[in-house]
Design goal:
Blueprint: H1 10-23, E1 27-32, E2 37-41, H2 46-50, H3 55-64, E3 68-72, H4 77-84, E4 90-98, E5 101-108, H5 113-117, H6 122-131, H7 139-147, H8 157-168
Parallel strand pairs: 2-3
Antiparallel strand pairs: 1-2, 4-5
Helix pairs in contact: 1-3
Length: about 180
């Protein structure tokens, strides 16, 4: 499956709706993994999403029966990448070109490096998925990161609907003879 194709399931739709219902925050995107769910909220929505004393976050963890992370979006790529790795001591974020390919490098405290990478590079994969949200990074960086997503878990129907609505308007489905999603 190409990196830009995603399988949408009813569970994905329910996860997105549940987040909105519990937090009253506007999510921008999410990544659902076997061991956790990571939501990205619009800039300025983090505190609302967490709730007083992080009660909404705790409720989400109970309902999903797994850890839930919430990351606040920022239009500046270096700030957003720092937020993705907020639980680690990030010392720098740099962008470079190596061998004709664009790279984003997040440097963390050496003692945190193993945790930041995660078992089997799982945390890096999540960061790559989140960092390729349209319009976040310059196109050449997003293109390189998106190549790494071929084995990434599928994204949700809510994500696709938001993107289609943003690109084609509120009645986007009327522009297609048929439009089906996996259940």
């Amino acid at each position: 499956m190409p990196a830009d194709e995603r399988t949408i399931t009813e569970d994905d739709i329910r996860a997105f709706a549940l987040f909105e219902r519990v937090t009253h925050a506007r999510p921008k995107d999410f990544v659902k993994l076997e061991d956790r769910v990571v939501f990205v909220v619009e800039s300025g929505q983090l505190q609302r999403a967490l709730g007083p004393q992080a009660r909404s976050l705790q409720k989400l963890k109970e309902l999903f029966e797994k850890p839930v992370d919430i990351v606040e979006f920022d239009p500046e790529p270096d700030v957003f990448l720092r937020r993705i790795f907020h639980q680690y001591k990030v010392s720098s974020v740099t962008f470079s070109e190596k061998g004709g390919r664009k790279h984003a490098t997040v440097t963390v405290d050496p003692e945190e490096k193993g945790r930041a990478i995660g078992k089997g590079g799982k945390n890096l994969k999540v960061a790559q998925m989140l960092a390729t949200i349209p319009d976040l990074l310059p196109p050449e960086y997003a293109a390189e990161l998106s190549k790494l997503q071929s084995q990434a878990p599928p994204m949700g129907w809510a994500f696709v609907k938001r993107r289609m609505n943003a690109e084609l308007g509120p009645h986007w489905q009327e522009k297609f003879a048929a439009f089906e999603h996996a259940r």
